Amino acid sequence: xxxxxxxxxxxxxxxxxxxxxxxxxxxxxxxxxxxxxxxxxxxxxxxxxxxxxxxxxxxxxxxxxxxxxxxxxxxxxxxxxxxxxxxxxxxxxxxxxxxxxxxxxxxxxxxxx
Amino acid sequence: xxxxxxxxxxxxxxxxxxxxxxxxxxxxxxxxxxxxxxxxxxxxxxxxxxxxxxxxxxxxxxxxxxxxxxxxxxxxxxxxxxxxxxxxxxxxxxxxxxxxxxxxxxxxx
Lengths: 113, 109
What we know:
The complex is a heterodimer.
Chain A: E1 4-7, E2 10-13, E3 19-25, E4 31-37, E5 43-50, E6 56-57, E7 68-72, E8 75-80, E9 89-96, E10 102-104, E11 108-112
Parallel strand pairs in A: 2-11
Antiparallel strand pairs in A: 1-3, 3-8, 4-5, 4-9, 5-6, 7-8, 9-10, 9-11
Chain B: E1 9-13, E2 18-23, E3 31-38, E4 45-50, E5 54-56, E6 61-64, E7 70-75, E8 84-92, E9 103-108
Parallel strand pairs in B: 1-9
Antiparallel strand pairs in B: 2-7, 3-4, 3-8, 5-6, 6-7, 8-9
């Protein structure tokens, strides 16, 4: 299994600002994924990040709004640019090793005022 | 990607067995069946995965119908800690997960 750590675990920011969410794995992982979850709703896949390549974004999510970096096999960052109240949600990173299951971080709860 | 249909909610008492069904009538041959659960304020947790027949691990068992259009997650002897939203996900391996609405399982003492 893989342990994922996210920082910060929660954040409050003003509209129009940008913030970064970090995800660190305790071992090297093949792929990292980012998900968004609004309150009382299901998780939505935002993007897939593989080491050394550009992240692949799902419909409704863009690189300009949610740039993702994956500089090595244990680390990824998600940035929320020009944050708006509608971006207030929980952001989860997850990873997949060589196996089939994904492991999820504890989430970062973002509130945009 | 195949769409899944699950009951919105289920209830059980501690010690009972809970069976959560999932319909995936358009499942492709490349797709596997995954079950995750999420308790409040935590990320989803992998439970079990299968392709066909019957799979069992230390947490749960998974029965998949012969035509692979229906699967049932079985949780033996549920406790209060098993109260969660259970998600059935059908997808090829190695891809990101598409979460549906899930089944909210409530457990009563």
